[in-house]
Amino acid sequence: MRNQNVRIVGPLTNLVRLTALVAMCVAALNCVAQKTTTVSRTPLVVDVSGPSLPLVSDPGECPEINWPLHMEGTSQAVVTQSTRDGVTYMLVHVVTKGTATDVAGNEFNFQYVNNFKTSFDTSSGEVFVNFTTDHFSMEGPAGSLSVGFVGSLILAPDGTFLGVVVDHGYGNWACDPI
């Protein structure tokens, strides 16, 4: 997909929304004048019934995957944050790796990588625009796919996801199951 400046309003992927919300919550709870880094690892076990992008209410089609898709793996998130002069700066790096099995029994190795960067003043009440890169790939004997984008996530002051402005995207977004 080579659309420039595409605006998608509605949910993106669960992990991107989770990353953005975690970033906002951590910032709201831990606004300190020093730099902090937190590393967490969590298991991922999820069954994805089918495409949910670009909108859950109007998903695209993904003939590249035999849905549903069962995914198991491990996700690691590194959150680095600092606050200077009332402005919070945050970097979130998420890597998720594992195996996926489609309904036909084909097995794949997958990797999801998301880098999220933001700065904000929670007392301003303004909408936050956050820079993110997002990539998902899946490879196996039955084939491979690669999808991703670079753009800006738009969040309300309370962390509610409002949309995304895509500056560069590639692959069939509807095939991004995470």
Break the fold down into its secondary structure elements and pairings.
Blueprint: E1 6-8, H1 14-29, E2 36-48, E3 54-55, E4 58-59, E5 69-84, E6 87-102, E7 107-120, E8 128-140, E9 143-155, E10 161-170
Antiparallel strand pairs: 1-10, 2-5, 3-4, 5-6, 6-7, 7-8, 8-9, 9-10
Features:
disordered N terminus; mainly beta; globular; 178 residues; two-stranded antiparallel ribbon; 1 helix
Secondary structure tally, helices: 1
Count the domains.
Answer: 1
**Major beta-sheet overview:** 8 strands, antiparallel
The overall pLDDT average reads 80
CA gyration radius, whole angstroms:
17 Å
Strand order of the largest sheet: 1-10-9-8-7-6-5-2
Report the portion of residues in β strands.
over 45%
Order of helices and strands: EHEEEEEEEEE
Give the number of DSSP strands: 10
Sum up the overall morphology in one term. globular
What structural class do you assign from the helix and strand content? mainly beta
- Could you give the distance between the termini? 18 Å
